[in-house]
Design goal:
Protein name: EamA-like transporter family protein
Radius of gyration: 18 Å
Subcellular location: Membrane
Strand content: under 5%
Membrane topology: Multi-pass membrane protein
Number of helices: 11
Main location: membrane
Order of helices and strands: HHHHHHHHHHH
Keywords: Membrane, Transmembrane, Transmembrane helix
Number of strands: 0
């Protein structure tokens, strides 16, 4: 139950990142790359402080460091750049679809053999997510921005797979954020620095320091105890939680179709993890 509770906390943190991002970007308080850069820097600063207080130092090396930094950078930079030219709903579908494919492929390559119920639950949950987020028949997807979002999903999938091997979640996450910050800063400068408001900066700092930095550290602590496929399916709850957050904090509308689609998503997740006693353990 403790592992389940921690996983729920992580999913809420991920959803809060979406809410913070909407509040800053939709209202025009900051450009997308500026938001991501400040978010990354704030996460790195918070994690460095926690490492110094709890470990006495910050270890920037370690196994899988290059892959961890590059995949985190790919996820954050491609995510921000893709949403310049793609709708939120279809973007989330591409993102989580690619996360699913990447993590299931990584699991199979590493020798994990998910049971039929997990495959069925994943398909059911993603189907509910498609119903929830599909923007309609008139949608037109920019190929370039769609590919960017796909790259972002692959980046996050790889980052999560790497996290399953983390021996010190706090040090690993801190090093990833600290080393990725200069690179994303360069990308921001190359694409052009836009305007920013005090509220936008505050939201980026909150997202970076709390729900990203500390949330990702907790994710790295939870991942070694989850199978790759279970971790992948669990993340399909994030858009549902984020939509609820938008309703609570941004007065965004919800409908009966949202309630039914959410029930399908949650039912699929339950089907994936509940039937087996070891569903929340490494397979």
């Amino acid at each position: 139950m403790r592992l389940l509770a921690l996983t729920v906390v992580v999913m809420v943190a991920f959803a809060a990142n979406s809410v913070f991002g909407r509040m800053a970007l939709v209202n025009g308080d900051m450009d997308a790359m500026g938001y991501s850069t400040i978010r990354m820097a704030a996460g790195g600063a918070m994690l460095a402080l926690l490492c110094m207080l709890s470990r006495g130092s910050v270890a920037l090396g370690g196994e899988g460091r290059v892959t961890g930094v590059l995949s985190l950078l790919l996820y954050m930079a491609a995510f921000s750049l893709s949403y310049v030219g793609i709708d939120t709903g279809i973007g989330a579908l591409i993102l989580f679809g690619c996360v699913q494919i990447t993590m299931f492929a990584g699991a199979l390559i590493s020798g994990e053999r998910p049971p039929f119920t997990r495959w069925a639950g994943a398909a059911m949950a993603f189907g509910g997510l498609a119903w929830l987020l599909w923007p309609g028949s008139a949608v037109q997807v920019s190929v370039f921005h769609g590919l960017l979002m796909a790259a972002s999903g692959i980046g996050w999938g790889i980052y999560s797979l790497i996290g399953r091997k983390a021996k010190d979640a706090l040090q690993n996450t801190g090093a990833n954020f600290i080393l990725a910050t200069p690179a994303i800063l360069i990308v921001w400068l190359l694409v052009g620095v836009g305007e920013m408001t005090k509220q936008g900066v505050i939201l980026a700092v909150l997202s970076g320091a709390i729900t990203s930095g500390m949330g990702y550290a907790l994710w790295y602590a939870v991942l070694p105890k989850l199978s790759a496929t279970t971790a992948s399916v669990a993340q399909l709850t994030v858009p549902v939680i984020a939509t609820l957050g938008g309703w609570l904090f941004l007065s965004e509308a919800v409908s009966w179709s949202f309630a039914m689609a959410s029930a399908i998503v949650l039912g699929g997740v339950a089907l994936s993890v509940v039937p087996r006693q070891r569903g929340l353990s490494r397979s």
